[in-house]
Design goal:
This protein is α+β, with helices and mostly antiparallel strands. About 40% of the residues lie in helices and about 25% in strands. Helix 1 crosses helix 2, helix 6 crosses helix 7 and helix 7 packs across helix 8. It starts with a strand and ends in a 22-residue tail after the last helix.
């Protein structure tokens, strides 16, 4: 591997088998023949991006589909005054900005690695060819785009209708759908988050998020340690934002067929 110390970017020579395994783990390509996965892997480039380094920036030209093989990234919008609005947190086998990869327009958000991460870049021509030749890829592409659209609609609706506490609690519950792991008496969100990350995800000042997290801890609803959130009273969190009355379907945030039932 060659690595550029200044840019934080380098090329990583994954084995062909590793590339194929990564692609096979992506929902978009599940069920494709092994020879097709081999063809995609051969046409793709792999790279390592150091933590804190951008994978791509909002407004950059899109040349293909980025697949996060290993690591963690955040996708977000930035304002002129330096504020950020996080759209999503991604980890292994996640697709980054499928819409821009398909239409070839500039990236609509920035992706930044939160830790050293390995990514594949599938050329746009390959992605379009797969959509021409495989009905299953077309359907899964539609599913992915619809899921992204619904998630963004839910986040913007909650931000408009909920108070600060409700917005933070809903963000925590959505993260539980995405990265929840069962634990004795509750759910552990298996994704490291700083308080600033959560503030940028909820679109709220960090001072307000710190106060809300403190309140939730004192209410024995959550525990925070090592940048992880453990939900110790799921029912209390749900009741506090009237989940049983809400018509927004946050199961759209789930990453698997057997998500944590929040």
């Amino acid at each position: 591997m060659t690595n550029n110390q200044d840019s934080g970017r380098g090329h990583l020579a994954l084995t062909r088998g590793e590339n194929v395994a990564v692609l096979g783990g992506c929902n978009l390509f599940t069920g494709l023949p092994s020879r097709e996965l081999e063809r995609i892997a051969a046409a793709s480039s792999t790279s390592i991006v150091r933590g804190g380094t951008d994978v791509f920036r909002e407004g950059d030209p899109s040349t293909g589909l980025w697949v996060l093989a290993h690591g963690r990234t955040k996708l977000y919008h930035s304002s002129a005054d330096g504020r950020s609005q996080i759209v999503n947190f991604a980890m292994d086998n996640s697709l980054l900005e499928l819409g821009s990869a398909l239409d070839g327009r500039a990236h609509s958000m920035t992706a930044t690695a939160l830790e050293n991460s390995v990514l594949l870049l599938i050329p746009r021509r390959i992605l379009l060819d797969l959509n021409r030749r495989y009905d299953t890829v077309v359907q899964r592409t539609i599913d992915e785009l619809c899921s992204d659209l619904r998630q963004r609609d839910i986040v913007s609706t909650i931000a408009a209708l909920k108070d600060a506490r409700g917005t933070v609690v809903c963000a925590i519950l959505q993260l539980a759908w995405q990265y929840g792991e069962p634990m004795a008496g509750g759910v552990r969100i298996g994704y490291q988050l700083s308080r600033q990350d959560l503030a940028d995800r909820a679109g709220i000042r960090i001072e307000t998020v710190i106060r809300i997290l403190s309140d939730l801890r004192h209410e024995n609803a959550i525990i925070t340690k090592n940048h992880m959130i453990e939900i110790t009273d799921l029912g209390a969190l749900q009741r506090s934002v009237a989940c049983h009355e809400c018509l927004l379907d946050c199961s759209v945030f789930a990453r698997s067929k057997n998500p944590i039932r929040t």
